[in-house]
Amino acid sequence: MFSPKTKLSFSKITAGVALTAVCTVLSATAATAAGKPIVIGLTSDASGQYANSGASDRRGMKMAIAEYNAKGGVLGRQIKTVHIDTETTPATGSRVAERMISREKVGFMIGAVSSGVANAISQVAQKYGVVYLNTNSSSPTESGKNCHRVKFVWDGNGKNFALAAVKNAVTAYGKDWLLVTNDYVWGHNTSKATRGLAVANGAKIVDEIMVPQGTRDFSTVLLKVQQAKPSVVAAAVGGDDQKAMRTQIAQLGLGDKFAWINNQQDWPDVYGLPKKNLFGVFGTTWYYKLDLPGVKEFVAKYQAAYPDTKMKVPGNVFYNGYMATKSLLQAIEAAGTTNNHAVIKQLENLKVSAADRMQHHDAWMNPKTHQMQQTVYLATSNPADSAKDDMFKIMSQSAPSAVADMNAEATCKLEALADTPQRES
Amino acid sequence: MDIILNLLPHLLNGLALGLLFALIALGFMLIVGVMELINLAHGSLFALGAYVAMTIIDPNLSGYGAFGEWYMGLSLTLRYIIALAFAPVIVAFVGMGLEICMRRTYGKKAEYGLLLTYGAALVLEETIRITWGSAEQVLQIPDAISGAFIAGGMIYSNYRFFAAGFGLVLILVVWLFLEKTPYGSIIKAGAHDSEMVRALGVNLTRLRLLVFGLGAGLSAIAGVVLTPIWGLRPHVGVDVVIPAFLIIVLGGIGSFWGAVIGGILVGLTVGIVGALAPEWSLMSMYILLIIVITFRTRGLLGKKSALEN
Amino acid sequence: MSTSFAKKTPFITRPMIVLFLALGTFPLWGTSVGLYDYLGVEIVIWIIYALGFNLLLGYTGLPSFGHGAFFGVGAYSYGLFQLNVFESVWLAVAAGVVGGAVVAGLVACFISHRRGIYYALMTIAFGQVCWFVSMKWHTVTGGEDGLLNVHRGTLNLLVTDASLKDNADLFYFAFAVLVAVVLILWRLVHSPYGKALQAIRMNQMRAGFVGYNVWLIKWSVFTLSGAIAGLAGGLFAIAQESAYPDVMSLHASGFVVMMTLIGGGFVSFWGPVIGAIVFFVARDFLGSITETWLLWYGLMFMGVIIFKPEGIAGAFQDFVAKRRARVEN
């Protein structure tokens, strides 16, 4: 693929697309020696806003890979990983993806918490045809407007959680709703989903407070919330902003004064905090105390693999990283090849039983949006004075079909498989 | 009338916020005023102060036997006071270490000092991440100042008003120190004419060390006081440097009261804009700065500074 | 930046030829030393950006710490032009240049009568405003997700077309732009205008007394620097196939300052070039071997400032001077 070129060579390139595609296949096939390890690039953040979640995500991927390596790898080949910090910055995500593909020769890439980084990586991945798993970014645009043929999304998104929460909240808590929305794309999308569902179920939106991204002081916002006296406050505030808001709500004890409907709470973001910092109702895809077979063993496996980690029990971010990686490796095994088209086809028809996913319902990949359709749980702070780590109380669970993001299918336009460069590693 | 009544709590809140902003700017102000150095490590020292305080309040003393038991037996209030007193001292020493690294940049372009502190900020942030992990943490506060009170049908945070009051007191203490003690006179003289200070026989090297230590200590105090409101994570410093910067310029470099007024002005602006058009609250700081600086070249109370060259 | 008034400055110099030969052949040897074409593309783009930036910092002594704004505007201009107006690499890059120049020209109106720290701070404030607008005006810019799906496009070269899809080809294109920028800037800094810039750096008041229109010169050099940042930003949008608000953040604006100083922008025209190369290679290398790369990176950075604040170019000049002295003795 990297045939020597002179300085003027760019002038003579004509049907470059076709040529590049052919070269890729040829060089890739030539390089595939039996027994050569499969290289997987881990693209999770190690610094910036999502450093902590990124680390948890990575532990999940590594545990799944270690399990496979222990039983002989995939297709008889060991799995090697490369990790480079994506810094919670999209521009860095692009560079890291380029490096992983062209220098480290990775066959697959896994990992994301920030949707900006996930987008940047997936654009590069699509260009080269490298299958990419977005493990933990829950923006609805990931499987909607910004979906790609090579990208598969494993987390529940804002729409899924809103569907699980809103209808019940209108009947349980009241009809006067106030929205607190982070003034950026994720916030707008999430709040739009909530607003639509709330109004459809008979609620009235009394006000919407826009919070600029980067806000650390929520005193003004909380005063406005008090002045509006709503029955329900639906917050779509994310990242560090949410952490600051949570602290300030806990200080005021406002968590009990209103019915708060939050989006997803990622486990690494709340672990170790006082329980009063958890307020209202929030979504999650998995909890370590789910009363299902296999969960206890899974937790024990985590503790054996990471005895020194401050986080003593696995959470949803770890779970997503682990499950996504495991499904990918299974797909490669089922395809019998690392050819990306074959693996994509496997993943598009992926079905995982509830028992294997340790959730209440069977999960399946939506081939039109590439988002995993899975059980969504609603949780709240655990009032019982049980073990310190047992922070959540699971309130309800919804089947994938009940919370499916129908809007995604309308907005997602996947590239044709034929237009995706072939690749093997 | 209703609008004014509705705005009243926001005004009060903005004032409290302003004092907090002024508190953040204090350590930054001292260093920029005296040393004419933009200390980009300010935010990291702020974070370091909070982390050290957190460790003092709730240390892991399981291996220390009797001492550990005795220490953890002390009340939270006592441990909090110990932290508030000692965390800034520890950070002051870190600041002094940084000043010693700085020495080779004196007399050269101001940009070098700025960049050195930028490098230090990266190093400190990563050291924090390695030592304490990257997860969100909580700095515990005594029950006496936590909780909330109700006034005019609205709930306010006790801690917030404690912090604002603390800010006010600290501002006065620093002012008294600068105005009423011989050290203060020397520091102020150093701010305006380092040649003169040297001629008077004051050890300039020691003066700079002292000022940097003091500035770093003040950054750390701000960290201890503010992180219970804003939360604690390794990159929390980033949230601090920009407002501090902005307030100093708004108030005028080298002016103590300029920084205080600048802080309060920013707090009030953010508070009121936040009430009327919340999506513009953060942006309003910058607009305020641009307006003020367009009409007043050296900020509200600024004097001529070597940094203008 | 030693300037000799007696000799006429040549169009092409030896360092230039060395740079063009060494960098221009990067795709041929880069992979064999563990680098990759895309890294080369980013390095070339940031060299362009840093060279333009050093017109301000190194030559005129104007600290602009919010320069990422113009880089970002260039990237958005490229993307918006390509997606909404007309599909042409040349015109879209031109849009990037114009976008950077217009915004910089506007900002320069507010700051050109200032100096020193107030200048620095105003540039930061305007940089933050631009960043904020790019986040907030998401119907146009795509908000924090960025302006996505910009495509690399095809370069019209009169006789033939060249696709920029492959990184090596994009590299040659960016490199050609770099050659042009180097030639132009080299002429510029050795022209009377360049002398005026340096006069302002040495002593702004004296420059005014001598008869230079200081305000106009400061305004024009800021606008020019913004235009070059816009150019680099436009190329960056091609490379990344997107435009992101992050490049406008204070953090990213700091990078270009760092590069310029590490390389030795104050003492040499070539400082920014060396700085950009070292910055990217070191970051890429450290980032791939350790998760705590920030620590080592920060320490390296502090080391340079403490022990050799004139940067790598300064160290090199010392070395050459020492050797010459030895030869002469």
Structure description:
The complex is a heterotrimer of chains A (425), B (309) and C (329). Chain A has 425 residues and is an alpha/beta fold. In chain A, 41% of the residues lie in helices and 16% in strands. Chain A has helices at residues 16-31, 51-70, 90-102, 115-128, 158-173, 185-200, 219-228, 239-252, 267-270, 295-305, 316-335, 340-348, 354-357, 406-411, and strands at residues 38-42, 79-83, 108-110, 131-134, 151-153, 176-182, 204-211, 232-236, 259-264, 281-284, 351-352, 363-365, 372-373, 376-381, 392-398. In chain A, helix 11 crosses helix 12. Chain B is 73% helix and 3% strand. The termini of chain B are far apart. In chain C, strands 1-2 form a two-stranded antiparallel ribbon. Chain C has 329 residues and is mostly helical. The radius of gyration of chain C is 20 Å and the shape is globular. Classes of the chains: A alpha/beta (425), B mainly alpha (309), C mainly alpha (329). At the A-C interface, helix 1, helix 3, helix 4 and helix 6 of A face helix 3, helix 6, strand 2, helix 8 and helix 13 of C.
Write the layout of secondary structure elements.
The complex is a heterotrimer of chains A (425), B (309) and C (329).
Chain A: H1 16-31, E1 38-42, H2 51-70, E2 79-83, H3 90-102, E3 108-110, H4 115-128, E4 131-134, E5 151-153, H5 158-173, E6 176-182, H6 185-200, E7 204-211, H7 219-228, E8 232-236, H8 239-252, E9 259-264, H9 267-270, E10 281-284, H10 295-305, H11 316-335, H12 340-348, E11 351-352, H13 354-357, E12 363-365, E13 372-373, E14 376-381, E15 392-398, H14 406-411
Helix pairs in contact in A: 2-11, 3-4, 5-6, 11-12
Chain B: H1 2-35, H2 42-57, H3 65-73, H4 76-102, H5 110-132, E1 148-151, E2 154-157, H6 158-180, H7 182-192, H8 194-199, H9 204-230, H10 238-251, H11 256-276, H12 281-295
Antiparallel strand pairs in B: 1-2
Helix pairs in contact in B: 1-6, 1-9, 1-10, 1-11, 2-4, 2-5, 2-9, 2-10, 4-9, 6-7, 6-9, 10-11, 10-12, 11-12
Chain C: H1 14-24, H2 26-29, H3 37-60, H4 68-85, H5 89-111, H6 116-136, H7 138-141, E1 154-157, E2 160-163, H8 167-189, H9 192-202, H10 204-210, H11 214-240, H12 250-263, H13 271-289, H14 293-307, H15 311-328
Antiparallel strand pairs in C: 1-2
